[in-house]
Amino acid sequence: MAEYWFKPKRYGYGATPVTWQGWAVTLGTVLAIVAASLYLRLTGNSLWTLAALLLFDAAVVSTLVIVSYRKTEGEWRWRWGDR
Predict the structure, then answer these.
(1) CB within 8 A of 40, min separation 6: which ones?
(2) Whose CB among 12, 15, 45, 70 lies 3.0–4.6 Å from 6's, allowing a Cys bridge?
């Protein structure tokens, strides 16, 4: 039996964490983005630094979306509440 970390949102599109694993993945994503932003901010202000930051952020957020999609109980679709 698969253990789900996320559940579909009641309103809108996507999923929300419901277990400690889901919250840990979400918090880890936020901390990785903040740490990379602070590190690259301290190392310099160039166009290449900004490009590296954007590429890293895109990779981390894409990973979060894939993990949450695979670990969600139910499908991702637009929802209008309890209808």
Answers:
(1) 49, 52, 53
(2) 15
